[in-house]
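Minutes, project check-in
Item: structure for the 241-residue chain
Input as provided by the requester:
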Amino acid sequence: KITQPFNHNCISELSKAIKSLRSSAQQVNTIFIFIESIYSMDGDAAPLIEFAQICRSDGNACLIIDEAHSTGILGTQGRGVTSTFDISDVVLCCVYTFGKALGCHGALVASSETVANYLENYAQPLIYATAPAPAASRLALCCYQAVASDHGDLARAQLDRVILTLRQALTDVLQHLAPTSSIRLLPSDSPIHALLVPGATRVVSLATCLQDSGFDVRPIRAPTVKPGTERIRIVAHAHNT
């Protein structure tokens, strides 16, 4: 087993990494590319179309996509980002959480029957784990049916409006700060928004102030993120006003 990291969301770096593996002395067969559709700390999206094209060009590379932060939120009926693109030919499997938008616990792997059979027989964390109770599985199904319903569509449309309002409000606030301020807002079209406030003390102080004002936000510090990229993590919800 060989692992080869590449710079975050960098299409050229991924292409170089694959070429490097193909030219290495060790024989490399299938290449598995592990990514998230929406990233939890920056809220940015993976360039799935471009990554899929790299897989096609290689001929024996495929994507394994974590849809934890898009399940129930993005895509038709909340089926995640992957469902919005024609890339199923190079997607080995997707992982969907029952937490977060669905409000339950657990997860599932959506894959071909071949991959599912392989995991059932060789994935030790699955083999030696206790199976979820039928009630828990039923609850997850009911929650997904709710987010996939017409009511879910209305909630997603409301969430889109909340995101636009939030981004505009944060942008307006930052424009009133001194030009030398180190606080900045990272680009994001997802519900996750990162307000960079470098320095552990500064970010905790700002988070405490916001929490005292009634805002449920969290300071994110090293080692969760790199030193100097501490941030306030803001997550928009359809019920926000």
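Outcome recorded: The helical segments are 11-22, 48-58, 113-122, 124-127, 134-147, 150-175, 200-212.
No further action items on this chain.
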